[in-house]
Amino acid sequence: MGRRPYLTLGRLAELPPGELKPEWVRHYDAPAPNLSPELLRLGISYKLQERRLGGISRSTRLLLLQVKARTRESGVKKPMPRKLTPGTRLVRDWHGTGHTVIVLDDGFEFDGKRWGSLTAIAKAITGTHWNGNRFFGLTEHKK
Q: Residue 77 domain-assigned?
């Protein structure tokens, strides 16, 4: 019996559906799930890319473990805290006036000034103390 040629992404796209489940077993060392050929191809292509480029980073792996633990602890899926990337615009309407905040590398820009926190911006807008993340809709209100 001849050795099977090395599977590439290009060759994977051409495989007939009947050959996908054996490839899954070969790459995952587990029985193939009952998925469509398209999803089997995606799963196998992930493994091919992982082998060539490496898997997910350690920080991503730790984040996924935290999500898993959080879900198990509470039994309820909680939204993960959102990470704001520079350039993101946060928009909030307060009493009929629109307010836009731009996320910077080292803080926020609002009303032509640089601010250190969303809480300070929320207080400037409302005149009272607010949690900045909650004011801009980044976290849910605890019930």
A: no
